[in-house]
Amino acid sequence: MRPDHALERLGGVGDAAALLRLTSRARLRLVVRGGAVVKDGRGRYSLPGVEAAIRAANRLSGVLAEDSAAQYYGWPMKHPPPSPCLAVPRNRNVADHRRRGLRVRFVNIATEDANTLATCPGRTVTDCSARMPFDEALSIADSALRARDVTRSELIRRAEAMPDRYRTRCLRVARTASEKAANPFESVLRAIAVEVVGLAALPQVWVDDIGRPDLVDVKLRLVVEADSFEFHGRRRALTKDCERYNAFVIGGWLVIRFSWEHVMFEPDYVRQVLTSMVALLSGQPSGQPFKRALADDQLRRPA
After folding, report:
1. Between 303 and which of 5, 114, 161, 173 could a Cys-Cys bridge form, CB atoms 3.0 to 4.6 Å apart?
2. Domains defined for the chain, CATH in brackets
3. How far apart are CA 209 and CA 96, in angstroms?
4. What are phi and psi of 214, to 5 degrees?
5. Partners of 207 in the beta sheet?
6. 254 sits in which H/E element
7. pLDDT tens-place string over residues 166-205
8. Longest dimension (CA), the chain
9. In a 3-state reduction of DSSP, which class is residue 225?
10. Mean pLDDT over residues 276-290, rounded?
């Protein structure tokens, strides 16, 4: 797999050990030399974009905001920023040609809410929660919590202080966010799961001395796993996971598994499966049974 595609699977940032599970050392050296991947430090890599965003912010005397600020802090996210996102004061006059290729937010930011380069972590998560889709914002909030750059209490406090039109969105992210999600893949899966009526899926709950699945509904005895090739692409790992899944089933748990492609590209399918499983386990009519297979182009889809 191409190293830049591998990094996208990892949320835009990753260490050498994780990358080399998906690609080769020779390929990694090649793309770093070509600029498609940036080496941030010893054994740490990221997708490019931070330096260009900082230069754009300097040109406009602004700061990085939203997903560009999240990228600056090194938080894995569902998608890398499509373009630099900058915050400049409301009264700043920025000509159209200077804004080309940028997302400029005209907003007055309190001194304590920004440093010289970016909005502070708490402000960054809240801004992402206000403007981005729920699953993307949740993956950023989870990453910020996992990095210990913010706390849930801070996120909830900031969300409660937001204007009415944003408060509900921000509170939803703040109350759902968890540092237990290992990566954006798991965060996005949880974002889909919380929308399923009757499903109370908790992240990384220890189950019957067997292990900690990605999501668990204890009442329904349902285990939901985000199966990443990064961790299942080797024979030993696959064998170990087969044994773990068998142990869950023998213990009376139902195991549902989704691939990275399912979660990132086909949320409707994931939602449909989870909804049907809730109906089945609750003894409710599940509607018409469905069959589905990935088309060839979906199977070949790059990461």
Report:
1. 5
2. 3-46 (no CATH), 50-176 (no CATH), 184-299 (3.40.960.10)
3. 60
4. -65, -45
5. 211
6. strand 254-259
7. 999 999 999 999 999 999 999 999 999 999 999 999 999 8
8. 66
9. strand
10. 74
